[in-house]
Amino acid sequence: MDFSQEYLNNQVWEDQPLSFGLPMQILEDGREIKAVTYTEPEGHVLFRLYAPGAADVVICCRYSRGHEIRIPLKAGTDGLFEGILPNREVYGGAQVVRVFMDQQEILSPYLPVCWVGNRPANFIEIPSAAGEDICIQAVPHGAVVREIFWSETLKSFQRCMIYTPPGYMNSEETYPVLYLLHGGTCNELDWIYSGRLPYLLDNLIAGGKIAPFLVVMNNGMVRHEQTQAVWDDALEQMLVRDNIPYIENRYRVSTGKWNRAIAGLSMGAYMTNDIGFRHPELFGYMGQFTACMTHKKDFPNYKRPYHKAMAEAVQNPEAFAGNYKVFFRSTTPEEDYFEYFEADDEICKNAGIDKLPCSYRIVFPENTSKIDSWRMGLRDFAQLIF
Question: Does domain 5-127 have CATH number 2.60.40.10?
Answer without folding.
Answer: yes
